Amino acid sequence: MPWTWGVFEVAINILEACLDMYILASLFSARLDRPQKVPLILAILLFSGTLCVYTFGNFDWTFDFVPLAIITFSYLCLFRNGSWFIKLFWIFTINVVFVVIVFTTNNALTIVFEMDINDIYHQTDIRFISVTTAHVLYLLFTWILVRLFRHRREKLVLKRSYMLLFTILPLFGILLLVFLQRAQLESHSEPMENIVIMASVVILVFEMCTVILFDKLSKQAEETLTLRAEAYYNKLQTAHQEDVKALYEEVRLWRHDYKNHMGIMQSFLEKGLVKEALHYISQGIENLSDFDYIIVSGNAVVDAILSTKLTKARKNGIETECSIILPEELPFAERQLTILLGNLLDNSIEACARMKEGKKFINVSIAPANTLLSIEIKNSTAGEVIRENGVYKTLKTDKLLHGLGLRSVDAIVQSAGGYCERNHTNRIFSTSILLPLKTIDTIIDDSKNPFQDEEGFIAEK
Which of 21, 48, 257, 268 could form a disulfide with 14 if both were Cys (CB 3.0 to 4.6 A apart)? Predict the structure, then answer.
């Protein structure tokens, strides 16, 4: 092979690798906890290196997509967000489109120049035209795909059975194209070339319809889930408001009866009934224990949430401790603050309620730390936790809906530019959150659904 053709083949392989990795990296957002530039460069080098091995090693190209798919899938799983089902779907779809473009270009040129299909792979001007044309068309497809689907459908909102079907369909297209290629190379007939072109176009149209259907169904599922999320948030806020109303109604009633209590104790003491007076006082102290956690931090929303939730915990036999120092301005609107603290404390209470033995406790600590606001909540557990890929999952049966609590907390923290870490050791579950303190002009807008990411679509942590 002349060195000029060798350089050309290497350049084309690098271009193909860059286009493939660019598409896939654009379709899925980056994992912020991991490096991006170096892994992407290494993935491109490994991808193009594999192509060069097939090019210069005279290997059978029939199943070259297998090692290439493994490389791209490994990169996406390690360094990009999103469901692995959807990653496989896009990997196979992009492979189908590229193969269709190459097959259609090659067969069209063999018809135009009246040559055998095997001659298209020889180092001639026709091969140069074929390869250049195919990659220009692929570049155009790359631009359109990225414009339409950038970070748009990376979350798994469809049922797994549907997603499995969407993953199998492009794989079936790849296998059908491979079969057509082998049949064509053995037949050497012009009608076969026409059949391959028509079949390639049909497969491409079918694949595009599959992508559109996938996008439509995903959009409908996201809208349904968003409505359920809104209903969940409204129900959560209503429950918090009812808890606050009930607690302060008890306080109001006790204060209303304060004079009556004093009169009864005075009557006991005037009659010399000291024991009865002491017994009456002890009963009053027990009733007052319900109001031990009337938090006064200076923020009415925080006070109401912590007071009601910690009082509820104490009524359920859970020991509580609370240390709170708040700055004048918080990085949340009231609705987000209600969702954040309400979810965290509800989860802690539920975790303690599942304990059959051992000490039940919840510790809450909120305080500024330099330019950050630190929120830490610890609670005892029964030792039952579900952790998948470093992410803690809900123990409730309705994973999709009840998982909203954990996901909404993560979404709120992320939208505030903060950091959230969860740990479970020695049957103690802890949630640590750091939030940058902001001015009133940059407080998070209350109107935005915290379950959405920066693109406006549902976020899943």
Answer: 48
Measure the CA–CA gap between 290 and 310, rounded to whole angstroms: 10
Taking the mean position of all CA atoms in its chain, how far away is CA 328?
Answer: 32
Domain ranges, residue 40: 3-230
Contact assessment for residue 237 and residue 338, using Cβ atoms and an 8 Å cutoff: yes
Q: Are residues 315 and 438 in the same domain?
A: yes
17, 54 Cβ separation under 8 angstroms = no
Is residue 82 assigned to a domain?
yes
Same domain, 192 and 301: no
In a domain, 282, yes or no: no
We report the CATH number of the domain holding residue 423 as 3.30.565.10
Structural tokens at position 3 = 């060195």
Residue 272 belongs to a domain: no
How many structural domains compose the chain?
2
Collect all residues with Cβ–Cβ distance below 8 Å to 71 and sequence separation of at least 6. Answer: 43, 46, 47, 50
Say if residue 222 is in the same domain as residue 300. Answer: no
Tell me the Cα Rg of the chain. Answer: 32
- For residue 403, CA distances in Å to 161, 234, 400, 410, 451 come to 20, 16, 6, 11, 11
Strands 319-324 and 361-369 turn out to be: parallel
- Quick one: 399 and 303 in the same domain? yes
Whose structure tokens read 């992410």?
Answer: 391
pLDDT tens by residue, the chain, 461 residues: 566 777 888 888 888 888 888 888 888 878 766 788 888 899 889 988 888 887 777 666 666 778 888 898 999 888 888 778 888 888 888 888 888 888 888 888 888 887 777 777 776 778 788 888 888 888 888 788 777 776 555 566 677 777 788 888 888 888 888 787 777 777 655 567 778 888 888 888 888 888 888 888 888 877 777 777 677 667 766 776 676 666 666 666 666 666 666 766 677 677 777 777 777 677 665 555 555 556 667 777 787 788 878 888 888 889 988 888 888 777 667 667 777 888 899 889 988 988 888 899 999 999 888 888 889 999 998 877 666 555 665 555 444 445 566 777 887 887 778 888 888 888 889 999 988 876 433 344 444 444 444 333 333 33
Whether residues 218 and 328 fall in one domain: no
Q: In terms of domains, do 315 and 220 share one?
A: no
Query: What are the two backbone dihedrals, phi and then psi, of residue 294, each rounded to the nearest 5 degrees?
Result: -85, 95
**b (16+ CB within 10 A) / e for 342-369:** bbbbbbbbebbeebeeeebbbbbebeee
